[in-house]
Structures are given as C-alpha cells and as structure tokens.
Amino acid sequence: MRKVGILEAKTRLSELVASATNGETVTITRHGKPVAKLVPYRATDRAAQARRQRAVAALLSMPRAKLRGLTIRQLIDEGRRF
C-alpha cells in the first residue's frame, strides 16, 4: 500500500487511478494523517447484494421492541443504556 500526500495526489491522479486499476491501494494523507483511500473497484456480487437486501427487509419488518412499556426510541431519547 502506497501513501501519497493530498497535493501530490491532485497532480498525479491519473497515475494513481491507473495503480488502483492494477490492484494497488493508495492512501491519501493530509499533514501525514490518512484522509482517504483509493482502492481497486470490484463489481458487487449479485447474490451477496440480494442477501443484504433480504436481511435489511427482514430487519425492517420486525416488530418494535418495548422494554418496561417504553420503546427503544424513548430509552435512547432519555439517554438510558440497556
């Protein structure tokens, strides 16, 4: 993994994109601290995407939980932890 300062990344973006296309990950830094990561693009696996969508749908269809007559939202609003 290569680290590049933000100003250098700005001037050499095409080269860095080519590196990512070839599988390299490039970390972009500002004042020596990582702020962004340029990674190779990977097409989403359709089966995995379908599983995620089903899981989200299942979570959204679950009934709302109540604790001692309070909803989770009310507990969060009151700053309680359960």
Structure notes:
The protein has four helices and five strands; from the N terminus they run βααββαββα. With 82 residues, it is of the alpha+beta class. The protein has two domains: 2-38, YefM-like fold, CATH 3.40.1620; 46-77, no CATH class. It has a three-stranded mixed β-sheet with strand order 1-2-3. Strands 4-5 form a two-stranded antiparallel sheet. The two termini are 41 Å apart. 4% of the residues are buried. The model has no long low-confidence stretch (mean pLDDT 86).
Essential attributes:
82 residues, 4 helices, 5 strands, elongated
Topology:
Elements: E1 2-5, H1 6-11, H2 13-21, E2 26-30, E3 33-38, H3 46-61, E4 66-67, E5 70-71, H4 72-77
Parallel strand pairs: 1-2
Antiparallel strand pairs: 2-3, 4-5
Strand content: 15-25%
Count up the domains.
Answer: 2
Number of strands: 5
What is the CATH T-level topology of the largest domain? Answer: YefM-like fold
Q: Strand order across the biggest sheet?
A: 1-2-3
Task: Briefly say what this structure is.
The chain has 4 helices and 5 strands. It is of the alpha+beta class and 82 residues long.
